[in-house]
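Revision sheet: structure tokens.
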Amino acid sequence: MRKLNIIKHLQPSVPSLGILTNVEQLASFDMIYIYHHLSVGSFLELKREKNHFLDKNAVQVYFKGFKIGYLSQKISSIVAPRLDKGIEVAAKIKSIDKLKYLPLKGLDVELSF
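Predicted:
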């Protein structure tokens, strides 16, 4: 008689959550100094700004120490609690909408948890 080898409960792999969004208020901060250094695939740093007067969940976006803008309020409401809990959120540039010698029009960012 054959003996069956039963594999105990395997944990299913859960795909990581990803969000595609854009960075707001690009022209308001240090973008003029670093926009020519931005490239698709570059990683960005996200920081919480708890005392922002308009958005209690404000999340700032930085590139090499330069502030380039904020995540939108809807996306910030998802990302901010994770940052507050210490969960790492990776941000990578997905696409850049710019013309030579003109300010940046848009910056799409991919977030992954």
